[in-house]
Input
Amino acid sequence: MILRKDLEMADVVRHFGKQYLEKYHPSTEKIKVLFDILQCRTSAFGGHEERCNCCSEVRYSYNSCGNRHCPKCLSAKQAIWIDKLLEQTLPIKHYHIVFTVAHQLNGICLFDRKMYYKLLFSAVWRTLHSFGYTHYGVESGAICVLHSWGQNLSLHPHIHCIVPAAGYSLKGHWKRIGSNENYLYPVHQLSATFKGKFLDSLKRVLRKNGSLDAFAPMIQKAWNKPWVVFCEPSLAKAEHVIRYLGQYTHRVAISNDRIVDISKTHVTFIAKDYRDRAQKKPVRLTGAEFLHRFCMHILPKRFVKIRRYGIYNHTTKRNLELQFEPEKSIIEKEAPKQETSQERIKRLTGFDMAQCPKCKTGRMVIVRELPRIRSPARPLYQLIRACLQ
Output
């Protein structure tokens, strides 16, 4: 087997898309994601012709699909999101907390992912919110990011949170919290409270839907298992923890650089084995199974995977400013410098989009727009089959 580094998710879809469609009969939502990945940065989405103003080098640039599940479209969005968040984050230390759900509940997640993820977000914030008041008497905050996968593309729902070591007290003043450098709250208490709140809300919704009896054994097994909330030691500066969380925000189930081989029947990719000191090992799956696992992590339409709570929620901040007068020294920051999109991407990533790739001195100037190819009026299922091998 020859390992390659130029393989992409689009190659997997192109090779095994028909097998996946015929075996698993995916929803229109999943087909749309695969179709966008297949056409991303190709002539199908249009683009523009550029010419260097120095050496007359010609370059054709095609538009991205913009789908949030596409591995190609997220690096620039991730850098911009981190930059914006740094402007809006309190300049204090933060804690990284990960809430993980027992795998015995995966069947309920597959039954109704939107309901399951919504309850998961709610249980996480209600847990953090209650601990903020019971331990420190403050309105705390959090920025939460949902992930649904493990390294081998299995279903593994969990939420990454960054929690500031500060909050609003009942008297309307800023208050520092988290005297312990390693833990903001007692981890065992946090785990037990989170488990209770999540399972209780899950049973309430299932009972209302008339589905509780079918899933009661799963819930009982999950209740009997110990749940562990992971909390990392605080980082000295907000910038460090924001950039660390930024690794998780716009990540998809698998990136292109992890795919190392595509044979006639199988896909091989690299995954970390956390049971063996996070060693990187190859994982080999059939093409249809690989796409099936990838599509398990496609979020429901319009579902928000990054959420702000408490003092980091825009509505809460607006309401608190009407009621309190916080210390200006903790929130005052310099006004951000105005810059274009190209200037911002260059500052954040170090990549100059307008620089000529040949002479390295000239600037690429757009000379012609390339229109988007309009597909014929056919069902999406027929369109994607026409693009597959």
In short: The radius of gyration is 24 Å.
